[in-house]
Structure formats: C-alpha cells, structure tokens
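LOG
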Amino acid sequence: MGVRHHIKVLVIDDDPSICKTVGLLLEDHGYNPRTFIDADEAVSAAQKESFQIALIDLRMPTMDGVEVVEKLKGIDDRMSCIVMTAYPDLDSATETMRRGTCDYISKPFKQEELIASVERACQQMGIIYTDESELNRLIGQRIRSHRLAQNLTLRQLSDRTDLTTSQLSQVELGKNAASIWALARISNSLGLQVSELLQGL
C-alpha cells in the first residue's frame, strides 16, 4: 500500500461543509490535509509551511481560484494545484491551466473522482512511496512468479545464486528484505535486470 501521510494537502473552499468533507476524505485515504475557508489565510499558511498539493475552489468572495493558483505557484512552483468549481466552462478551465493548474474538477464531484485527481498529481510528482513490508512482499511475489514461469525449484535457484533455499524462501514470502547484492544474483539467475524486478513498485 502506498504511503501518503507525509503528503500535505491544502484545501481552500469558502463552503465550510465542502472543506470538512474533502478534509475527512483525504484523511481517510492517508493524506495530511489542512482546510481553509479564507483564501488569504490559506496563502499565508503556504508561506509558512510546505504543501505538495492544493485543492482550490474557483469562485470565492475575497480572491478567485485563478489568483490563488498564481499566488501559490509564486510561493512554490512545484506545488500541484487542482481547481474545483460548480461553474465549469472552457474559458475558466483554459485560464486556470494556463496559470499552472494540473487538473480541473466539476462540482458536485464523486469522492473517487477527487481522490483519483489527487493520486494522479502525487504520482506525477513521484511522492507516493510503498511501505517497506509491502515492498518486500511485492518483490518476493515477483521473484516467485518468474521462478515458477521458468519451472525452477528453490533448490535450482539456490544453486544458481549461492543463496540458501531458506534465504530464497524468506525473500519470496516477503519476510526478509533482499540486499541489492542478493537481488542482483536472483535477477541475473532469472535472466532479468534488477530494474525489471522493481519496475512499478
């Protein structure tokens, strides 16, 4: 499972109920949100602490979403800004994209649509990572499937790698992390690059 608790999300919407709903939804998916109904306060917060993602309502009384995007990008141009609006139109979508928005969501949105947009932004930034125990399990699973596809027993793989069957079994079960040296021996014995074992994990 991807780890997200280090990802700070700024939520800016003048509707308190939307702020609360979006904040709880993000927390449920492991993110670390901070919600603001006042755009000026949100911009001030972004000057004091670092946020990776911002979800911004397009129409707000003190400052519109396009202006907020511009100010946030001025503070940190790496921040991914996603605009939410109940009044979608081509002109506003084009303008927000031109100012540096990475996505545009129409209200009312489905929860999965909002989370999918945030996930895409995080993946583009490369800030979701897999926790260690899950990573070990996935690598082990991949080694086992390649070994079985080549009709190799643990004993045969052991002979090729100079690792004991017990060591290989622990790696395949995800109970032990394989060292880079061990992964290199295993992948070489299976006719793979180490990068192929790790791709997409």
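LOG (cont.) second protein
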Amino acid sequence: MVDKARKYKITTVKRLFVLSGNECYSPDCARNLIAEDEKTIVAKICHIEAASPNGPRYNPSMIDDDRRSFENLLLLCDEHHEIIDNPLNESNYPKKLLLKWKRDHENKLLNKKMTQSTLLSQSVNILANLDSCDNNDDSEQSNNKSFNISKKIDYNRIKINKYLIEEYRVYAGKIDTLYNELEKSGSFKKEKLLKKIRNLYLRVKGEYIAGSENELEIIQNNSDEIIKKIETLLFEEIEETVVEINDDALIAVPIIMVDAFMRCKILEKPVS
C-alpha cells in the first residue's frame, strides 16, 4: 500500500512534468525525463523534505498532504535523485538549495511559455465557467485600488508563497490584457472569474476564523495554508469538470491566483 506522502494527485504530477520541460531539475543537467519512445517515464519524483522519517531533509512538523504537495516535489533523472538522497550527501543538498533548483527550473520554462499568446485563454475560460458554490455578498468585489504588494505580503505574513507572488506578479499585465481581449469577444466576464476566486477565499477564510474575535491574527498565522487550499479547490473543480485537463491550465492557475491576490480578492488588504 502506497503511503499518503507518495500518493500524488494527478494535477500535481502533470504540473511537474509540464514545468520540467522534459528535463531534469538539476542545474546543467539536460537528461530527458521521458525516454526516446516518448512513452516511457524515466523521471524520479523527489521530495525536497522527505516522505518518511528515515529520508533526507525530513521535517517532522509537516503533514503528509504537505509532503506530497507540488511545492515539496521536483523531478530528477535517476542519477541526480540517487545523489541528493544519498545520506552521505545530505548536507550538500539542503532544502534551501533544492527549492532554488525548483524555482529556477520552473521559472525558466514559465518564461518561455508566457511568450505564447494562447497560453492562458482556454484556462481562464475553464475557471470562469466553473459553477460557483458560494453566493456571498461581496461588498469589496469592485475594489481594485492599487497598493504596495510587498506591504500586503508582509501584512498577511506570507512566507512560503512570497517568492511565487513576487515572481509571478510580472505577468499581471498579460493577464489584464487577456481579460480585456476575452471580454471584447463576448466570451468572458472578468468579474465572474474574480468573484469565483473571491468567494472561494471567503469560504476558506470562514473555515479558519469560525466566529473568532481575532480574525486577522488567524488569517496571518495561516495565510500560506489559505492560499494553498484555494489553489487545491480550484484544481479539484477543474479535475471534476474537465474531461482532459489542459496542460496550460496547470500553469495558469497559480498566475491567475497571484493576479487575484494583487486585486485583493485573496487575503486581506493592508490598513493604511
């Protein structure tokens, strides 16, 4: 029986392969992760923080859902997988280094993908057409006033997702242009998508605060988990709704979420 820390979700594995560009995540390694027959997978899924107590970089404070999450995984060729997991090498391959490998490799592929004008359009429409399960009265829905993104990150005490927001925010202009183009064609309503994400945030937020008087403190202490849960809910709805998941959607969801964060649809706006 496969333990939960190694029971990967389909969307997690697909995201890893899409963002790998069919190359090992180790810098300067160009080994393919799919064999020459284009069918046989030769990649190894590697945990940055180990799946089990005897593994390298094990973090006892993590839960299995975090251990199997996209953020804790990278794809390697067999050789580099064996090298970084060798107990004799553990001090040479700490968590910080492997996270850098992951960020650098995935951002390289993302930057390449973002030059493709059609990357996000289908994904945006998929998300916009998901059935909204909430009918919250959102008085902040039209509040898109600009504010300092770094200040919002600090205000919400975001740690794990800080680098993602700071790096993906450069694509906000492309997202806005795409929204405008789709709206002109009559096939899309920007506010429908933003409200969908906003309502998911309000739902998740409600699960955490549950009538507490210290709402902001609870949100600040759980901001990274809240972001992750919203993203998970979006991916789950895509899996349930779409017969064949578009690879581009797996790249688009985090970018769209960062855009929603910048529009203050996710987490709290800093108090002036």
